[in-house]
Amino acid sequence: MGFKAHFRKAQALATLGKVEDALREFLYCVSLDGKNKRARSEAEQLLLSFFSTSVLGDCQEHYPDILMLLAPHPRLKEHVKSMATEGTSHNLPKLSQENSELPRCSIQEEAAARGDCNSLMNPAKVKGDGRQGNMKDQEGEEEKGDAASPEVASSKTGKCQEKKRKHCQIEPRDPEVPNKASKSDPPADPGARPALSVPLASFDASDLECSLCMRLFYEPVTTPCGHTFCLKCLERCLDHNAKCPLCKDGLSQCLASRQYSKNVIMEELIAKFLPEELKERRRLYEEEMAELSNLNKNVPIFVCTMAYPTVPCPLHIFEPCYRLMIRRCIETGTRQFGMCLGDPIKGFAEYGCILEIRNVQVFADGRSVVDSIGKRRFKVLHQGQRDGYNTADIEYIEDQKVQGEDCAELMGLHNCVYEQASSWFHSLKSSLKNRILNHFGPMPEKDVDPQINPNGPAWCWWTLAVLPLEGRAQLPFLAMKSLKDRLNGIRRVLAFISRNQN
Fold first, then answer.
1. N- or C-end of the chain: fewer Cβ atoms within 10 A?
2. What's the CA angle centered on 26, arms 25 and 29, to 5 degrees?
């Protein structure tokens, strides 16, 4: 409710004679707008009426309840205590030690929860003799306030919201629930953090659900605008739009810095009052991570270009689905995903290469440059999709090894084609060679045993990557399981290119 709603409710309760409820509503009004003189005046009058002889003479048992209402406001509470202490001539009850042990919170915490309650009420205006200020001036100020334009009211609301944003992680405390300490409890350590004093019955799992995934908060973070979400849910929303999902406030700074405000209080509340629900939520998260970590089923597939084992493959990531895919590969710890060529009929090619992420550079607008390198070849068994990007069930393929005379023949072919590829590369223009070296690095050395690597010699893949071939012409080399066939194919391509150059 806003200020006017609390104020009208307080007036109605005062008319019905429900003084305690009316005082509570007036205190809420002063908390929302500390400069409103009429609300302050009404609250002062009710406080004075509580300590007058006519009221407390019959309602002494309500005195602790008054202090309970004032517990979030230390300054006003101390002033009320002093009035009670000085009221012995009016037969006012003394404060007992038990009544003084009421819940307290700092002014800064209450300011965060209510919107700056430091100016709740000036204690100097609460006089013991019951005299009030000039009511005409106060009524005039109130009339001016009521006649203010909507722009002024919206500016006040904006200031209140801004103060709440700065302390969005502080949960408001219920003034009606006292924190009664047991006499048998050991003395509290002054250096320790205060324990949470929220009744267990007031907590429900549905009250602590993320508004995006509709599940219990897991790794809750709070935005500068004061809204709390699961970290993974917020990151997915920022992949599409750098604004708060609820209020549409700009979150470009969070996206640029990649630093989110972890809500420690929310985590402690969930861990203390909803341990079983948190255990179940953690189990579901771990199952999701285990499923995403599987590199045989539902492997994420980046449909883009050709990739080869041992060859670097830098990528520019800007689409939301691939931002999510790369982030999940890093979170699971595998740091691997598949790369396939696009296919107009099947969606993507039947063969591809697993890439491993070596480094990720993220820009302020959410784009990123991924430095990856080829690892293993695979064949697609079944295609699928997950959260906007492609997935596939795959099986890995390796070269078939040969022995005896076939091995000696393979060794001779290997040396011959390596010399042919090296001669072709050194015959290129200096500008073209420099571009190739900057992108793919130098040509790998010839292996002593060409069959030592299950994917074949590294220089073969480097040569295929730099040869001026279209992707569809390169794809058959990736699917070959015979190193001899791959070497013969490279030799024919090099011979064709050399004839065209001459």
1. C
2. 90
| Residue that terminates a domain, selected from 379, 396, 413 | 396
CB 208 within 8 A of CB 266: yes
pLDDT one-digit tens code per residue, 256-274: 777 788 889 888 888 988 8
- Compute CA distances 443 → 179, 297, 310, 421, 462, whole Å: 73, 34, 11, 10, 7
> Residue for token digits 């070269």?
399
Same domain as 353, residue 311 = yes
Together in a domain, 302 and 388: yes
CATH code (residue 308): 2.30.130.40
Quick one: pLDDT at residue 405?
A: 87
Q: How many domains does the chain have?
A: 2
Lowest-confidence region among 200-209, 243-252, 437-446:
200-209
Closest listed residue to residue 49, CA positions, set 37, 61, 57: 57
Round to whole Å and give the CA distance between 254 and 236: 13
392 and 426: one domain? no
SS3 491: helix
The answer to the question of residue 265 being in a domain is no
Q: Are 121 and 30 in contact (CB under 8 A)?
A: yes
User: CA angle at residue 333 from 327 to 337, to 5 degrees?
Assistant: 60
Range of the domain at 374: 294-396
Tell me how far apart the alpha carbons of residues 113 and 436 are, in angstroms, rounded to a whole number. Answer: 61
